[in-house]
Amino acid sequence: MAELIQPQMGLNFEQVWAALMEDRQQMKETDRQMKETDRQMKETDRQMKALQKSMGNLGNRFGELIEHLVSPNLLEKFKVLGYAFNRTNTRVEYKDSHTGKTLAEVDVLLENGDCVLVVEIKADPTSEDVHDHIKRMETLRVYADACNDTRGYLGAIAGRIVGGEVRKYALKQGFYVLEQAGDTVNITATPEWWKPRRW
User: Fold this and answer.
1) What is the number of structural domains in the chain?
2) Handedness of CA 113, 176, 130, 191 (dihedral sign)
3) What is the CATH number of the domain that holds 80?
4) Counting C-beta atoms within 10 Å of the first and last residue's C-beta, which end of the chain has fewer, N or C?
5) Strand ranges for 81-151 from DSSP E
């Protein structure tokens, strides 16, 4: 004789209600956790922006410090090499006279009636910085020609520390290399084959 299988009883009202209340409580907890995560992400974002601003200000202050160390000493340093620069400027922008677009930015500019020395300052210059300075010099030459400025343009790379390979690359491009030395800067001794490039 076949065994009679009794149907299982369904959940009663109290059990369904308890399950719904438990789900509701879990949803509230999940919502609370999501709000807390969102708050933490906003706080992290705020802290990151503050850090970026702080780092940017530090970078600007470092750049200003280097420029202040470089520019007063450069006139004397280059005078020894036979350059009689009579004007110095920092943070010079060259703009297109028609569009107002910035063509080039120069950290330090030394000038006289014969030539212009364009100094690019980096904390720790890289080969890419040297390459960018070559492009800057080419842009300035085009700008000078358009303004009937026939002076020769010379370039220099200045840094807190200039690595050996970067120094060699900069010298091969005809740049002067300037390195921080205490409260002043020194012009790197140049090899016999070296001569400054005039743009």
Assistant:
1) 1
2) positive
3) 3.40.91.50
4) N
5) 87-95, 102-111, 115-122
